[in-house]
Amino acid sequence: MEQQDRKNTTEYVIQSTREYLDSIFVEERLIDSGVPSLEMELFGETFSSPIMTPAFSHMKNCAPGQQDGMIEYSKAMKELNQVNWIGMGENDEFERVAQTGARTVKIVKPYADRAKIFDQIAFAEAHGALAVGIDIDHSFSNDGRYDVVVGEKMTGQSSQDIAELVRSTKLPFIVKGVLSVSDAEKCADCGVAGIVVSHHHGRMPYAIPPLMVLPDIAEAVGGSMKIFVDCCMDTGSDAFKALALGADAVCVGRAMMPALQQDGCKGVVDYVTKMNDELRMMMAFTGFRKTTEIEDSVLWMKS
Ligand SMILES: Cc1cc2nc3c(=O)[nH]c(=O)nc-3n(C[C@H](O)[C@H](O)[C@H](O)COP(=O)(O)O)c2cc1C
Hints:
Blueprint: H1 3-22, E1 24-26, E2 40-42, E3 45-47, E4 51-52, H2 69-80, E5 84-86, H3 91-99, E6 104-108, H4 114-126, E7 131-135, E8 148-149, E9 152-153, H5 159-167, E10 173-178, H6 181-190, E11 194-197, H7 210-221, E12 226-229, H8 236-244, E13 249-251, H9 257-286, E14 299-301
Parallel strand pairs: 4-13, 5-6, 6-7, 7-10, 10-11, 11-12, 12-13
Antiparallel strand pairs: 1-14, 2-3, 8-9
Helix pairs in contact: 2-9, 5-6, 6-7, 8-9
């Protein structure tokens, strides 16, 4: 496939994901409503909102004055008391992120060097991670062979591989990049504590919008694990729709990048605060007092 074709299919997936989100309308239920709380419980801890950062990486110079973007967004999540995520990176980077005090989920890449996966999981556990996990949607490249990411070889993950990773740590284990009931059920069988429903910014052509498959996944495994969603979770309204369709929390990714690049930690605090405010507004207008109460009977799909 030519580079341009690949770019177009990615753009198509992103566009369809955005269009699907925007095709969902919300009814109002104002009588008996009040000011809602965004508080959420996750893995035994209490956080101020179910809006989180995503498993990002390679953002060293992505904040003003050559500041480290990973550290800046981690500081923002510490300030907000919201959950922080990081993706690919070496142990020393995780250590610097942990030192910000942000409660952080570390998502390890599916390295072909399996010892590196175990090493990063153990390091994150020893350095206070909230949870650890692996992304399964970077195993394969555009040609269907195993991927090479920033010079590092990746490989596929079998159910047995995932079950072994779950057993290797005392921390909750999360699988990122689930986009089917089939994979969600395999994760449940492996004893994972959570999944991220995601197409990883359109890695596969024609990937289904995460919210289209979310209700089926939630019905299949929702009681047994936490469900996180990313991909185009750009506003508080997007987060509201995801929570209504069965997510426990959402991760905002590329949408917060301009704020990070322009104002570092402050930019992310402001962006996420705006999302929190909009989520609270959606809940107030629909009569839900707690994020766990939000359900899909308020949603209307454009026909
Ligand atoms: C700069 C950048 C780096 C990323 N690094 C990782 C990574 O290391 N591991 C991972 O699982 N996902 C990674 N992702 C994917 C995001 O976690 C997320 O799945 C994706 O951006 C879709 O969410 P969004 O539409 O909110 O951006 C990265 C995305 C971006 C833009």
